Amino acid sequence: MSVLQQLRATTTLKAPIFVPTVIFVILIATFCSIFPEQAQTTLNAIKQSVFANFSWFYILAGSIFFLFLMFLCVSSLGSIRLGADTDEPEFSFPSWIAMLFAAGMGIGLMYFGVAEPILHYLKPLRQGLSEAERMKDAMMMTFYHWGIHAWAIYAVIALALAYFGFRYKLPLTVRSGFYPLMKNRISGFGGHAIDVVALCSTIFGLTTTLGYGAMQVKAGFNNLGLLDSNSFGVLIMIVSVAMALAITSAISGVGRGVKILSEINLLLAGLLLVFVIIAGPTLLLFSGLTENLGYYFSSLLELSFRTFAYEPENQGWLSNWTILYWSWWASWAPFVGMFIAKISKGRTIREFILGVLFVPSLFNILWMTSFGESAIWIDQQTNGALAAISNNTEALLFGFFDQLPFSIVASVVALMVISIFFVTSADSGIFVLNCIASQGEEKAPKWQTILWGILLAVLGLSLLYSGGLASLQTMTLIIALPFMAIMIALCFGLWKGLMVDSQYSSKTFSQGSASWTSGDWKTRLEKIVNPTNRKDIRRFLTKIARPAFNELVEEFESHGLTAQMNFINGKNPKIEFEVIKENLRNFLYGIECQSRELSDLVVEDSNVPNIEESKIYEPITYFFDGRQGYDVQYMTKDELIADVLKQYERFMNLAMDDSHDLMTADVENIGESTGSGQ
Q1: Mean pLDDT of all residues in 335-344
Q2: Is 611 helix (H, G, I), strand (E, B) or coil?
Q3: What percent of the chain has pLDDT over 70?
Q4: I need a labelling partner for 675 at 20 to 30 A (CA). Which of 150, 317, 394, 564 fits?
Q5: Is 1 a member of any domain?
Q6: Could you list the residue range(s) of the whole structural domain that residue 663 is in?
Q7: Which residue, 501, 533, 567, sits at the end of a domain?
Q8: How far apart are CA 29 and CA 599, in angstroms?
Q9: What family is this protein classified in (predicted)?
Q10: Crossing angle of helices 407-437/255-279, nearest 10°?
Q11: CA-CA distance, 143 to 157, in Å (whole number)?
Q12: Within this chain, do residues 531 and 412 fall inside the same structural domain, yes or no?
C-alpha cells in the first residue's frame, strides 16, 4: 500500500470541508509570502471596504446575540436541558464555574490587559474630558469589548453545539445547528459550505491570537535582556518552537499533562492578578471596579447599538477597535464554543446562559480593572512612563511591571503564562480544527495533527511577514463577515429547534384517546395505522356524531331546554350541537373536517404502511368561545356524548360565576334587549 493510500485509509478529514479550506489557506500564505507589499495593500483595501459598508452589521449582530440569549434565559425555553431530561450535569457547579473562568483566560488578556485601557486613556473618544473622566471612559470601553457582548458571541455557538449535540445527538459541528432549517440537507453542499467558513474563521482567529502571543513573547525576551533583536527570524524561531511543542503535546496523547499544565498556568495567572492588586493602588482598584461596573451596566444598551452614524469623525475609532474585536470573537467562537459545549451537558439553557455570559465577563472585567486602572494610575504618577512606549503595544505589559516591585519576577511569570497559553491554545486549536474538518470526529491520526500545526505556523508567519498584526487582524475581519451572517441564521435554527422541542415535550394524549381502556384495542389500532381521508370523516360525522347529537337533542328537550343539531354539507363537512340560551351565549359544540400536512419523514418511510398522501383529514371540535379544538375520531358514540356533556358542564359552571360574564353574556343581543327595555 502506497503512502497516499495509507493516508486515505486512516484520515478522518472530509474532503468537501478540508480541501477548499486548505486551498484557500495556501493561496493566502503564498500570496503574503511572495508578494508582501501587494498583499498588505490588497488587505488594507478590503479592510477599508468592510469598515465602510459593514460596520453596522457587526454591531447589530453582536447586539442581536445578546438580546436573543437574554430572551431565551427569561422565557420558558430556559428550562430545557442540554441533553435528555434525566441527564445530570457532568461536572459539579463549582468545577463548571472554574472551567468557565479558565475559558475566560488567554493570550488576549495578557496582551490587552494593560494596552487597551492605556490606549483609550491616551487617545480618548470624547474630547475635553478631565483626567478622571478619561480614566472612567477608558475602563468602560475596555469592559464593553471584553464583557458580555464578547461572551454572547461565544455563547450562541456554544449553545447551538451543546443543544443539538446532546439533545438531538448530532455531531458537534456548526452545521448541526442548521438541522431545523435544512433537515437532511446539512449533509450536502450547504452543510459543507457552513463548516468551511467556520473552519477558515477558526484558523484565522487562532493565527491572530498566536500572532499576538509571538509578538509579546519576543517583547518579553527583549525586556529581560535574553534577546536583543527585532528581526523577523526571532518570530520564526518563537512560532516554530511553540508550534512544535503544541504538536508534540497533541500527538502524544498526554491529555492529563496538558490539563495539569493548564491548571498550573491558571494558578500563575491568578497569582499575577493578586500581585497587581496588592502592588498597585489597591483601594482605587476596588472603588473603581464598583463604580465602573455601575457605569458599564447602566450604559450597556446605548453601547450595544452605537455605530456613530451621526458622528463620522468617530467611525474610524469604531472600526479599529469594536469591529475588529467583534470579528475576532466571531472567529474564536467555534473554538471557545466547542470547549464550553463539551463541559455543559446536563445544564439547563437558563443556567448555561447566565453562567457563560456573566462568569467569564466578570472575571475579564476584574482582570482589566486590576491591570488597566493600575497602569493608568502609574502613568499619571510617573509623568507618562507608559505613554512613552504606547506605540509598542506588545511591550506595554512588561513596561508596566518595570514600575512595580519585583519587576523581574513578575515579568518572568508573565512570560511563562504567555508561553504556556501559546502552547495550550495551539494544542486545543488543532483539536478543534480536526473536529470541524472531520464533521465531529474527535479521534484523528497523528499526521493530521502535524499538518494542522504546520498550516497554522506557515499562515501566521506569512501574514506577520506581509504586514504584522494588521494583516492577521484584516484576514480575521474578512472571514468573520460571512461567519457572522451564518451565526444570525444559526439563531433562527436554534429558535426553531427549541420551539419544536417545547411543543413536542408538552404534547399530551389526544382527547379522543384519553379515556381508552384495554377493550376493543384491535379496532383502535386499525384506526391509528390507517390515515383517514374525507370519506372517513364524512362517515364518522354521519354514523357517530349525528346519532350522538340527535340523542342529545332529545334528552335536553326532555329537560325543558331548547337544543338543535345542524349538519353543514360541503367539501369539508361539519356538524354542530347547539343549546339555545336567552341571556347567555348559545352553547355550541361543533365538529368539522380539517386537513393536516404529514411529515415528509413519515410519507417517505417505507416501514410506515398505508400512507400514500401528504395530507390526512381529522374531525376537529370547535366551540362558541373560539377555544382550540381537538381530534375526536377515535371516540365512540357514547364517548362523544360524554365529551359534549363535559363541555356543557364547564360552560354552565362558568356562566354561574359573575367574573366570567364578559365571555358568557349574549353580547350580540345586548342592543336589542336594551332597546326593548326602553
Answers
A1: 87
A2: coil
A3: 86
A4: 564
A5: no
A6: 521-672
A7: 501
A8: 48
A9: Belongs to the BCCT transporter (TC 2.A.15) family.
A10: 140
A11: 22
A12: no
